[in-house]
Amino acid sequence: MQVFKAMFKVMRSRLPSAMIYVVCFVVISAIIANASTNDNKFEAKRLDISIFDEDDTPESHALAEIIKKSNDIVEIEKDKDTILDSLYYRRIDYALIINKGYADKLRAGETAELFSSYHLDESFSVVYMGQFLDEYVSTVKAYLNMGKSFDEAAASAEQALSQNAKVNMLSRIDKGGNSHFSVDFAGYFQYMPYILISIIISVVSLVLVTMNRKDIRFRTNCSCLKESKYTAQLFIGSFVFVFFIWLVFMIFGAILNREMYTGRAWLAVLNSFIFAIVVATMAVLVASFEPKDNVLNLITQVLGLGMSFFCGIFIPVEVLGDGVLSAARFLPAYWYVKANNMIADITPYSFSEVVECYLIQLGFAAAMIIITLLVRKVKYSGAAISTAVKKKALTH
């Protein structure tokens, strides 16, 4: 196992760069997980609003009173420059103008051009205010059509719009009911392929390129170690490193989930392990071409970002076009994401299809192992023949 030991001596010098990826992924995942724990809490924001009532009727006054109950009213001059300055410097969030003729149009059943408004952005609160005005007008109009007076219609509309429904946010669990694998936790596994590709290829490929330097390779060729055994030890060393990195992520995943993996979550664990094996074989294949450091970094980014965008890691599969998905089927990350989505019930779950995704990923790994062996055999056999020819020429 001399090659195996030498490989890990070289790998130790590359560990700091790998740890940077690990730490960044862990920190970002922790921040996202902490933020998601508060997703079930919602509180309506009180806006700072300026109201300009150009209609000045009991109907417009009734609307202004309703708005005052859930927002803070700020008095400013009715001047466009003053309004825009107040919005820019965040003294107000929204400026509402109740247009002249509001009451007459409302009684006539007209809803167009009842209001004008000023705001800087389309934030949730601003959109919510626009929806509130639309709902208020529609509700008042409905009560007026029922024969109620405006005062009764306004009071009924206020009562209807002030009702609150009790909502309980539930974590999404699998349909089998015997395991807990939330969509938030699935997101942890969703982004793992990119980080695995970045770490494994940047470290393993660099180490293997170092191990394939001419001086080291010539020593190996002169030894009694067969090429197949040399390659096998490189594969074993790569897989040991990959297993260590994968295990770190799995341990942190259990901590992040605040419990050990149970039920269907183990399928996601197995899915990530299989993909890690695929990336390991990918790294060995890339290293067999002995790219320079800058070229290797480019290959790492192309593979990582390419599969992330085309296979549904960074962009949901639902928004990708059919042509993109057809091409993505030829990449292992597509089958990883497909299995992960089924495990999390994002798409309909089928155990047989999940296993099929596993087998296809393993097929990619097997194909890359075979290609690597062929590349090394052709490359180094050709080098040996060339060396023999040169020696023979020198003897003559």
Give a description of the structure.
- This protein has helices at 2-12, 15-36, 58-70, 80-88, 102-107, 124-145, 150-161, 183-190, 192-211, 214-222, 227-256, 265-287, 293-310, 322-328, 332-343, 351-395, and strands at residues 48-53, 72-73, 94-98, 115-118.
- Residues 171-179 have low confidence and may be disordered.
- Strand 1, helix 3 and strand 2 form a beta-alpha-beta unit.
- The protein has a four-stranded mixed sheet.
- It is mostly helical and 396 residues long.
- It has two domains: 2-31 and 181-395, no CATH class; 48-161, abc type-2 transporter like domain (abc type-2 transporter like fold, 3-Layer(aba) Sandwich), CATH 3.40.1710.10.
- This is ABC-2 type transport system permease protein.
- Keywords: Cell membrane, Membrane, Transmembrane, Transmembrane helix.
What's a concise summary of this model?
This protein is mainly α and 396 residues long. The protein contains 16 helices and 4 strands.
Order of helices and strands: HHEHEHEHEHHHHHHHHHHH
Report Rg: 32 Å
Number of helices: 16
Number of E-state strands: 4
User: Largest sheet, if any?
Assistant: 4 strands, mixed
Query: Roughly how many Å apart are the termini?
Result: 40 Å
SS-derived structural category = mainly alpha
Kindly give the count of domains. Answer: 2
Please, what is the average pLDDT? 81
> Helical proportion?
55-70%
Strand order of the largest sheet: 2-1-3-4
> Which runs of at least 5 residues are low in confidence (pLDDT < 50)?
171-179
